[in-house]
Design brief:
8-stranded antiparallel beta sheet, 4-stranded antiparallel beta sheet, alpha+beta
Length: about 170
């Protein structure tokens, strides 16, 4: 009986150590001075940036996925194809046209770091949406006007990812 209890305790302890020490992707947003956002990200975790094009004055949405310490461009959506807006289907991608958007999907573009310039309420009106499990909607143009942000993904033990988590 004592051996069974020791085995159960050992299994429980091993599972606890595994859960705390397992490496996870952590989505990080930093400005020049500090990390302003840090949350664990699920494999295939999604976030989206949105801004108003400076000439066309129409919305542009960029949809990203987090996989393997990289930020993958999943889809870019635009309302028109004039004045500096994308018009070419990405290599290894496709253009999907529906009633609302021109969708440029795929292309296999990825980055270990993605730099993102935030405008203000007159130029850009940049927004960020982070989808579950770390959900949030942020008006970056109000929170961090005219900042250059660095989006990145690192691996960290699950315990430290939760301890160091911070939101905008």
């Amino acid at each position: 009986m004592r051996l069974k209890v020791c085995i159960i305790i050992a299994i429980f302890f091993s599972l606890a150590v595994l859960a705390v020490a397992s490496p996870v992707d952590v989505f990080i947003i930093a400005d020049a001075e500090t990390i302003v956002y840090s949350r664990p990200a699920a494999v295939g975790g999604r976030f989206m940036t949105r801004y108003v094009h400076s000439i066309e004055k129409t919305s542009v949405e960029d949809d990203y996925r987090i996989v393997g310490e990289r930020i993958w461009s999943w889809e870019e959506r635009v309302l028109s194809q004039n004045a500096g807006m994308p018009i070419v289907t990405p290599r290894n991608g496709r253009l999907i046209v529906d009633d609302d958007w021109f969708r440029f999907r795929g292309g296999r573009l990825f980055w270990s770091e993605l730099f993102y310039r935030v405008g203000n309420d007159a130029l850009g009106m940049n927004e960020l949406t982070v989808f579950p499990p770390s959900s949030g909607y942020y008006e970056l143009f109000r929170l961090m006007p005219s900042k250059l942000l660095r989006f990145s993904v690192i691996k960290a033990p699950l315990f430290f990812a939760f301890i160091n988590a911070r939101g905008l």
